[in-house]
Amino acid sequence: YILPTKPATLRTSAERQAFTTSPAMNTFDKIFADPAELVPLLDQHRQQGHTIVFGNGCFDLLHVGHTRYLDAARSLGDLLVIAVNTEASIRSNPNREPPINSCEERMEVIAALDAVDFVVPLEDALPIPLIELIRPHIQAKGTDYNLDQMPERFAVEACGGRIEFVGDDKTHSSSALREALRQRGAIPDEK
Residue 133: which H helix or E strand, with range? Predict the structure, then answer.
């Protein structure tokens, strides 16, 4: 691994690529179907003093709000680990529609983004088990959340981390995209 010579937010894309991943790393190399397999790599970075940022979401219909969130989350540290909700974890929330794209496809799309270093599945309703496993320095949440809505904050704090709210105002959403597609007849009405 190449140690950075500048703060994370000032690294060039090439420096960040050399710093976070091997030269041969591609989209699929960034995906860890078993999050426990990522832990030794994160421990190496932690020992080198690198800041690990964790975020999570469904990321079904990718939009500019997602990319702004991911870019802002990445700017908080040296590595960004994103957990993508599985179909089972989405079903556990009665207010959520089923995803259009499979978890594997959503993970692949997120892994292809430059801001994201690693991607893992989120199997549970809440990311608490992943936070306890990954032990991030920072959990990045969107601006549509607050601490009272985050039962996982206690897990973040227990591992010595902190919460940061990042991204733009919640003026973009997959739900709004779905509704626009329904109005155009591109997807069926779920009601």
Answer: helix 128-134
Report the 3 state secondary structure along 63-113. CHHHHHHHHHHHCCCCEEEEEEECHHHHHCCCCCCCCCCCHHHHHHHHHCC
Question: Helices (DSSP H) in 135-190: which residue ranges?
Answer: 153-158, 174-183
Task: Return left, alpha or beta for 160; rule: phi > 0 is left, psi -120 to 50 is alpha, else beta.
Answer: left
The radius of gyration of the chain from alpha carbons, rounded to an integer in Å, stands at: 17
Q: Are 19 and 4 in contact (CB under 8 A)?
A: yes
Phi, psi of 121 (to 5 degrees): -80, 150
**Cα 76 from chain centre:** 13
Amino acid in position 25: M
Confidence (pTM)? 0.82
Burial of 141 (0-12, 13-18, 19+ CB in 10 A): buried
pLDDT cut 90: percent of the chain above it: 61
**Who's near 50: CB < 8 A, 6+ residues apart?**
77, 78, 79
Helix (DSSP H) and strand (DSSP E) numbers for the chain:
8, 5
Tens digit of pLDDT for each residue in 133-150? 999 999 999 988 889 888
